[in-house]
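Async update (no meeting this week)

Hi team, since we skipped the sync, here's where things stand on the single-chain job. The sequence we agreed to prioritize is pasted below, unchanged from the tracker. I ran it this morning and attached the output directly underneath so nobody has to dig for it. Comments welcome in thread, and please keep replies under the output.
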Amino acid sequence: MESSRGSTIVGFVDNAPSIQRNESSFDGVPLYVKELIAGGFAGALSKTAVAPLERVKILWQTRTAGFHSIGVYQSLNKILKHEGFQGLYKGNGASVIRIVPYAALHFMTYERYKSWILNNCPELGTGPFIDLLAGSAAGGTSVLCTYPLDLARTKLAYQVADTRENIKDGMKGVQYQSANNGIKGVLTSVYKEGGFRGLYRGAGPTLTGILPYAGLKFYMYEKLKTHVPEEHQNGILMRLSCGALAGLFGQTLTYPLDVVKRQMQVGRLQNAAREEDRYKNTLDGLRKIARNQGWRQLFHGVSINYIRIVPSAAIGFTTYDMMKSWLGVPPQEKSRSVSAA
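Output:
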């Protein structure tokens, strides 16, 4: 425990100068609070770093007029042309407000679930399989607690307003929703239209996707670290690499579920012209998107997601590990041995 509390944040290479944290800075702070702080900070930093790519991805997934048939660079240019620099970060306020409690809860509950499993199910061992179980449970918990904010973020990012009075190049086909101005406006509007259930529209595919994704992400991150020599396991480059690969693997397997969720969130299931085109559930959404829009639509935007998820997952995992080290959060296996002692 003492060696962990005296841990340091390492540099970009293992033998680089380290930054020592103040030993007394966080003495007396409960462990779960430290985990919440570390997770929230990691989530906000990683989400803001890739916000422009996240905006483009949502516009692609929801087949917004003028965006679904052009590339990443052209999409970013079109947003800059019609909405200015701030357009690249439209919806990011809602995203950060959502991601801070989401990431804080995700990482904290992951640590708590992992600790519970280690203490109560010793027959499962201490390998990456524990991270798979704890990560999945943590993902479901954090989604249920923060989903309305994710819905607001998607609706804000989906709106394309022409702040420069220029609606050329296909922008006339966009539906403007000026009434939903800000997070509060979106949530109020959604609640008036669909009540409490409306705030959780699309939550089904989200949960279906997050359970395997969150579990696989933590599993792959810890699994990859076991293949790295111990003397290099604290290096930032190692953490960035393992985090990027873990996010890439998990996202590839669950991306179609994310497409269904986005289309349900922006109201395609409510605004379908024919009753038979509405999505009844996640599987029905997958089937109808493949039938009506083509199976390629289930992976539309996956290329930008690869560009986005690599830095996002890498920054998230690395920042969380560094913050835990700085705050003096001990590894779970070490925590269990200390508790047993």
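Quick observations from my side:
Residues 1-22, 162-179, 334-341 have pLDDT under 50 and may be disordered.
The radius of gyration is 21 Å.
Reply here if anything looks off.
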